[in-house]
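Glutamyl-tRNA(Gln) amidotransferase subunit A structure dump, as promised
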Amino acid sequence: AHLDRIAAVDDSVRAFLHVDSEGALAQAAAIDAKRAAGEKLGPLAGVPLALKDVLTQEGVPTTAGSKILEGWKPPYDATVVKRLKAAGIVILGKTNMDEFAMGSSTENSAYGTTHNPWDLNRIPGGSGGGSSAALAAYEAPLAIGTDTGGSIRQPGAFTGTVGVKPTYGGTSRYGLIALASSLDTPGPCARTTLDAALLHEAIAGYDPMDSTSINQPVPAVVEAARRGDVTGLRVGVVKELGGEGYQPGVEARFHEAVELLTKLGAEVVEVSCPHFQYALPAYYLILPSEASSNLAKFDAMRYGLRVGDDGINSAEKVMNLTREAGFGDEVKRRIMLGTHALSSGYYDAYYGQAQKVRTLIQRDFANAYEQVDVLVSPATPTTAFPIGDRADDPIAMYKNDLCTIPVNLAGNAAASFPCGLADEDNLPVGFHVMAPVMRDELLYTVGAALE
Ligand code: GLN
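structure tokens r here:
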């Protein structure tokens, strides 16, 4: 049924880069056979899922939205993918994204923009716009995203779906094509809080293949999503994430949701996080620095594309030509920024300074969590914007991530839950919840209460 739905609507939504009909039907048939034989099935046996094209799946084309990986078929499954398969999940295909997860709209994909199912003239958010659009268009009931600076939560907010960024290290990065290794976090996307929790439980947990994986039990996310009891929960509204520059309809829905939490028994206070205002500039130094280093491996020798390999050019020239042709503008912009920020003579002034700011932001969180259990804000300053609106203005695009980025710098858990439609444009608004490291269950408590 989901493959039929994809065939019917994806020409206009364009959530998928690759639909693996054959593979999906084979997985489904294998599950049927197991069931017929009376064998034990995984906890989510037969549930279809859309996979962001930044995670490797053995033998299935994987591009990370880039021309430089065109034609590459990974020889192994990412840990997340291995766990999906073990849970019995059927993977429908790979979803569109901004190239190497750099962007907030999917307009930076080398394979065209995904359209927001709520209004096809608008972007679905990014970088994981394909995954969230697939959910909103009923092409899949579950999806996987990755969140480095908001790429699960912001598309979740723009498409009226649930997007959860687990604690950094709570889900494995093994087999995730790296953007910024100290920030990247795979996580669940779904249409309901409980669905997201069930998927969260299936993919999370310690992985010896990832050196930053946390060796602790997975937080009790499913139980929290089932109960949704906020009685006595201390909720902090972040003073700095609201006001000027925020769309009135976004703020209205956000404050209504806060009132609802109060009515349900939560204790709401205002909390100040004074260094959050520096999160965006710190992020746009740390991320390009790590990205420029991570992307050095695309050297024309190992993966996908190779240009100028005619026996005349040197290896260096082939590398230059391939990177010139294979990377898009935003990727080149960040490689240059990052290389500059890391270069000798500038390292302390840029990268070093940004790391200090990162520590101050972590302290803001630590101080806040002495007073409250969770922090809340709108997930984004505005609703989904029209395609093309910000494509030529990187700074305007970066501002999308004002609310989501502080969490990534601190490594905490966070999520966006739908909280209604803005009055101005009837587009979905996301309610952003942030929780301390390895307290991911608190997100689901709030999400379930709001549902
Ligand atoms: N908009 C952010 C960026 O462009 C999102 C990154 C992400 O979470 N992958 O860096």
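The pocket of glutamine is lined by residues 101-104, 127, 147-151, 179, 287, 401 (CB under 6 Å).
lmk if u need the other ones
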